[in-house]
Amino acid sequence: MPDFIAEWLNQNEIFTAMTLMEYWDGMVTTVHLVFLSLVIGLLVAVPLAILRTVRNPFVSGPVWLYTYLFRGTPLLIQLYIIYYGIAQIPGIQETFWWEIFREPFYPALLAFTLNTAAYTTEIIRGAIVSTPNGEIEAAKAYGMNWFMRMRRIVLPSAALERPVTFTPGSMRRLMRLSLWRFAIWRLRLFWCSLSANWKTIC
Fold first, then answer.
1. What is the mean pLDDT of each run of 10 residues along the chain (202 residues)?
2. What are the residue ranges of helices labelled H in 14-56?
3. Is 112 exposed, middle or buried (0-12, 13-18, 19+ CB in 10 A)?
4. Fewest CB within 10 angstroms: 48, 66, 117, 133, which?
């Protein structure tokens, strides 16, 4: 490291050689969370969006309820509920799942994935229902069944129509993800100070 940079770092308390490594680790973790939550959320959202367009309320209703809850509640509350709710599942602390979910990264990934999938489901559903009727009628006249129409006409059309809507949402989620570590550890310290069973969580 050049001497002038080392001297500058030693003259302040915020940007030091040690804190810069912490910032770098935080940025890498945030990028991992963004990438994984977007990819997994998209994979979950596509079939949910298709089910959301089904006219049967027993099929589309649960999907609507899921998207309504996750889009209508703050992401921070979802993060807290998932992180501490998993710890309250009876018997989970004696299973291998506890070794995974006791770490903050995986509950955060689950919360962000579910939140991303909820928003993406509605985005894709909007693209599906906005497919021109002429394209669908032409596909029916060509003899395509429902599955083939969805695979060859509706989903490709939705993919071409909605990237502009999907990208700003991804950027907003990137900005919110930067608070995940701070939020979890602040509440974790508070919970540990109050809980009589702190050894099972902290």
1. 63 66 74 86 92 91 94 85 79 80 82 89 87 84 85 82 55 57 53 48 48
2. 17-52
3. buried
4. 133
